[in-house]
Task: structure prediction
Amino acid sequence: MGIKAVNHVAIVVEDIESALAFWRDALGLPLARTERMDAEAVEVAFLPVGESEIELLEPTTPDSGVARFLEKRGPGIHHICIEVDDIAATMARLRAHGVTLINETPREGPGGRQYAFIHPRSAGGVLVELYQLPAE
Result:
């Protein structure tokens, strides 16, 4: 199981434009791009920080997981994403250690990246996303 890096930290916000007043304008992080991810019902703003990113997540539907998180907990850190060499092997290792996964198989996101989530009850209350980038 090859852990490569912390790929990103995702932060739920009520409104990306308002959140950018802090992250981009006050703190000075560059806004690389925004992307709508209909499969997760979010609009995402990507702000690079060295080799990692801050991702701002704004829900696009009132019944999405991110919208429910925002309603229940308010804005704040949603998950940490760990980039891995082989997501299937990582998931198998985690299962062998009794870790509860939210996704039984990896999902495919834009650009061919694969991702899956680990249930917070297996990670000390932290939602952890596994990420495998496509081969270059």
